[in-house]
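Project outcomes to date are best conveyed with an example. Our students and postdoctoral researchers have been running inverse folding experiments weekly, and each run begins with a structure described purely in tokens. The record below, which covers 179 residues, was selected by the lab manager from last quarter's runs and is presented without edits.
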């Protein structure tokens, strides 16, 4: 794999959404445990988002210049920076709440978290577009010989594949038997 960006991006996505979900649940159920879970998940989200942004900056070089995908890359990059900013702001507010035991910033904390989740979803969608719609970072798979791919298949399946294969080459199994 030329760049670890596709491996890394899933961590900040999952951890940030988890942090906001834990915080919302902690807010409504007054749960200290879920509040601590939100703090830990948000710290992980920030670290993951930093890694995702850094690897993403290196990965954008593989997008062909002048392609339609470059427009999406530009937006994806901007949204990635905004997602990182939301994660940092959420974590900073969460740390403030936790260490100062100050609940006055809970409303801004939740607002930043919800905005961050929306930004995260948009960023993830654009990353998916780059891979699935534009094929960025994807190599064409080599052709597969079904007889080699499924060596433990039943004999009837193998015979069907052999019959199809022999019709392509012009050697039918019946023609060799009549000679």
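After processing, the design step wrote out the following sequence:
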């Amino acid at each position: 794999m030329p760049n670890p960006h596709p491996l890394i991006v899933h961590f900040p996505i999952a951890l940030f959404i988890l942090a906001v979900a834990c915080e919302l649940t902690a807010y409504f159920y007054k749960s200290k445990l879920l509040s601590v879970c939100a703090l830990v998940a948000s710290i992980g989200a920030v670290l993951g988002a930093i890694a995702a942004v850094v690897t993403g900056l290196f990965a954008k070089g593989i997008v062909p210049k002048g392609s339609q995908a470059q427009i999406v890359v530009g937006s994806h990059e901007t949204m990635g920076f905004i997602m990182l900013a939301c994660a940092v702001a959420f974590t900073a507010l969460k740390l403030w709440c936790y260490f100062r035991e100050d609940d006055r910033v809970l409303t801004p904390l939740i607002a930043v978290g919800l905005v961050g989740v929306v930004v995260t979803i948009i960023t993830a969608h654009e990353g998916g577009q780059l891979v699935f719609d534009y094929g960025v970072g994807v190599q064409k798979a080599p052709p597969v010989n079904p007889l080699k791919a499924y060596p433990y298949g039943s004999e009837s399946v193998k015979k069907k594949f052999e019959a199809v294969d022999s019709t392509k080459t012009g050697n039918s199994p019946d023609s060799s038997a009549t000679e």
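Helices lie at 5-8, 10-29, 32-59, 68-100, 106-133, 146-149, 155-169, 173-178. The chain has a mean pLDDT of 87. The training component of this project remains on track.
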